[in-house]
Amino acid sequence: MSALVRTTGLPSSRDVKGTRVRIGAPVVIGAPLQLFRCRCSRILSRSRPSNTFITPFYLCTLAGIECRDSGALEFTLRAAHILTMLGVHAPTRKRIYQVTELSSFPVLPLRDMVVFPHMVVPLFVGRDKSVRALETVMADDKQILLASQKDHTQEDPASDDIFSVGVLANVLQLLKLPDGTVKVLVEGQRRVRITEFVREDGYFEAKIAEMPDTDAEPKEIAALMRSVQNEFERYAKVRKNIPDEALAAIADTTDAATLADLAAGHLGSAVDKKQAILEMTALSARLEEIYAQMQGELSVLQVERKIKTRVKSQMERTQREYYLNEQMKAIQKELGDGEDGQNELAELEAKIAATKFSKEARDKAEAELKKLKNMSPMSAEATVVRNYLDWMLSIPWGVKTRVKKDLGRAQKVLDEDHYSLDKVKERIVEYLAVQSRSAKLKGPIMCLVGPPGVGKTSLGRSVARATGREFIRISLGGVRDESEIRGHRRTYIGSMPGKIIQALKKAKTTNPLILLDEIDKMGQDFRGDPASAMLEVLDPEQNGTFVDHYLEVEYDLSNIMFLTTANSYNMPGPLLDRMEVIPLSGYTEDEKLEIARSHLLPKSVKNHGLKRGELTISDNAITQAIRLYTREAGVRNLERELNKIARKAVTNIVKKETDKVIVARDNLEDFLGVPRYRFGSAESEDQIGVVTGLAWTQVGGELLQIEALRLPGKGRMKTTGKLGDVMKESIDAASSFVRSIAPEIGVQPPRFDALDIHVHVPEGATPKDGPSAGVGMVTSIVSVLTQIPVRKNVAMTGEVTLRGNVLAIGGLKEKLLAALRGGIDTVLIPQENAKDLPEIPDNVKEGLAIIPVSHVSEVLKHALVRMPEPVEWDAEADEAARLARMSSKPEEASNRPAH
């Protein structure tokens, strides 16, 4: 793609001062430089008038180069070097500028470079001020002042940031590039000094003054010129990047100023050193400085060359030593002298022979050993094979731990470590009983699902201790890479087996108990789905042939007893189907009290260095701590509160304030502070429209207060208390059912159209949802309509239908515990939940009167202080009366006197 190129100093035709010059065939931009140089030499060898000015661009034109392409800029620069080499030092412009005190020129600040007179250099200009300065120069056909910046990192320099000495230059060519920058070719003319900046907005413009050279002794100048020329020849040989044309031009130059400027332009010195040369007007001093800088550069370049030579020789020596070492190893191998390597291989061979591999694993190990014998011990592949054999030999093959089958001992161990959790203990004992009769029984895969802190992880250790198995815990929380389970393939650097094989290496037995903790918290991403990889591990029909990607052989996992834990059922269906799920509900208040008394408190006393009798905590204090300072399904926070009491007790004893600490219900706040929670309690008196419901939460059961209020209105139903959609629908169903039985509860149906009912569930910031409060909603609405109070000692739970039937609910145990804790003595539950009562602790059933109900009529019978009296209501008669009233209203209006 061609670009616009503006040039200066070119004749309008190819007739130069009356001398007709014959043009040769055009030269393509990509033509060899030698052809271009020959053509230039022929043109310059022709006779021409003495006043003919030859410029680099004019030379390009004569040589057949058309300046319409950006590639012509390179040929123009080469032409300038050829002109200098051939001794043609003519002005590059037809017009010579005379500098006066009033002369001002646009200034182009240079970054990290210094331009000297007689230099032809290309510049890339991108700053706005610099581009505008170039545009002014091209528009006015003026010269431009090139001055270097003091700090090359400044993007927008001020006038004080520019050196006061620069070079007045001609713009030979200007090329606008597609990205908005400008590529310009300039030729330095003479050094000048900036006397004053006359413009700084838009672009810099400054007044300048001439800096004429001061002559010295001719003999001294001649000697310095010869020294500089000789030194530059040496410098060019070491520097390597100086063109031959420049070397020839400097060797043939007879003018001292031109020699100094040409040599200085090729120095590799820093900007400040070059600027110092530019500012020198004394020729002798300038040549001496150039000579000194070249010598300094030569010494540095020579040192660099020595370093490169030394490094190269060291590398060659290292390669030579490596080659000789390899030769020596080959010779030793032929002579049988490689004792260390042979001993290692013999040791591996003996271990492989002694290990009880499967047939597939033995064949694989022997094949890898054979491959290792034929490899160089120093090769990378040998290290990979050696690591593989180490893994194959470090995991157990056919090594089993004797499983203890004493049922009595197992039950004792489980009871010692954990209070309650009867279902889990029963399942473990059943497994041991069956295993004592059948040795072919595969290990069970149980999944303990429950809230945090109920003892799922610690139960795994107890099961391992009860069965005599090695215990290994694998945390799966946050695992997203399938290779963490199946292992990494050996092609990757740093590859290793998966977590299952690593656990077996640690256990050193093929039948440990592996606890897969937090299995519901595995994720998936672009690296695979680890939950899918667990399908093979946890399937008793498949894990006997488990293949790890690293081992690449089958390994039998069927002897392992897997125990998994989870906080929820949020797992893939196929994975959940492979496990025997055992739900663990939260501990009851009595269970927490017993756990604190038997396990947590003795542990806290021991850990804090207390002696027996120094700390005593009453049962009432522990119960109060459970109710007012913790809200959890487990006992972790309770343990923290007991530790807090122990710390304060130790502090008081160490300060010698007391010999022993007794914590009771009355002084509990002195140790734990202000209570953080409140627990629901029964109402103090029977109230209209106030019903005590029962709710289930993740931290246990709660009493749920339901309030209803009637007020004059238009039959609307309003609900508040941050209720979920299911609970709102339950209220709608309750309202519709109550309207359908209005006469039975003593309410005339038209009464509904004159009243609004507002149902509210307190603690409005807490979200509430679920259908189990349906019977409570019905009771509350009936109470507020009939103005009959609800018994204060009755709580209820159950879903209600439009026909008034009471349906089953979940979380019965937790709800009954909340009722007992809150002082309730009578609980109404759905008839369908009566089958769950055997699983309720005896102390709960003894403390509550649990009444199963199947219809709302039974609920009202037990919940209200008295049953409402039914009323008779004829719908047809009521409708006729309503129509009669409506027809009488217009007649009354017509008989009303007008005012």
Automatic annotation (TrEMBL):
Q: What induces it?
A: By heat shock.
What is the taxonomic lineage of the source species? Bacteria, Pseudomonadati, Pseudomonadota, Alphaproteobacteria, Rhodobacterales
Residues at which ATP binds: G450, P451, P452, G453, V454, G455, K456, T457
What's the stated role of this polypeptide? ATP-dependent serine protease that mediates the selective degradation of mutant and abnormal proteins as well as certain short-lived regulatory proteins. Required for cellular homeostasis and for survival from DNA damage and developmental changes induced by stress. Degrades polypeptides processively to yield small peptide fragments that are 5 to 10 amino acids long. Binds to DNA in a double-stranded, site-specific manner.
What is the official name of this protein in its record? Lon protease
Question: Can you state which reaction this protein catalyses?
Answer: Hydrolysis of proteins in presence of ATP
Organism in which the protein naturally occurs: Roseinatronobacter ekhonensis
What keywords sit in the KW lines?
ATP-binding, Cytoplasm, Hydrolase, Nucleotide-binding, Protease, Serine protease, Stress response
Class of enzymatic activity (EC top level): hydrolase
Highest taxon listed in the record's lineage: Bacteria
Q: Subunit structure, per the record?
A: Homohexamer. Organized in a ring with a central cavity.
Q: Do you know which HAMAP family this protein is assigned to?
A: lon_bact
Give every Lon proteolytic domain span. 685-866
Q: Which SMART domains match?
A: AAA, LON
GO terms for cellular component: cytoplasm
Record InterPro entries: AAA+_ATPase (IPR003593), ATPase_AAA_core (IPR003959), Lon_bac (IPR027543), Lon_bac/euk-typ (IPR004815), Lon_lid (IPR054594), Lon_proteolytic (IPR008269), Lon_Prtase (IPR027065), Lon_prtase_N (IPR003111)
Q: Name one GO molecular function term.
A: serine-type endopeptidase activity
Gene3D superfamilies recorded for this chain?
Answer: 1.10.8.60, 1.20.5.5270, 1.20.58.1480, 3.30.230.10, LON domain-like, P-loop containing nucleotide triphosphate hydrolases
Which Gene Ontology terms describe the biological processes this protein takes part in? cellular response to heat; protein quality control for misfolded or incompletely synthesized proteins
Q: Where is the active site?
A: S772, K815
Stated family: Belongs to the peptidase S16 family.
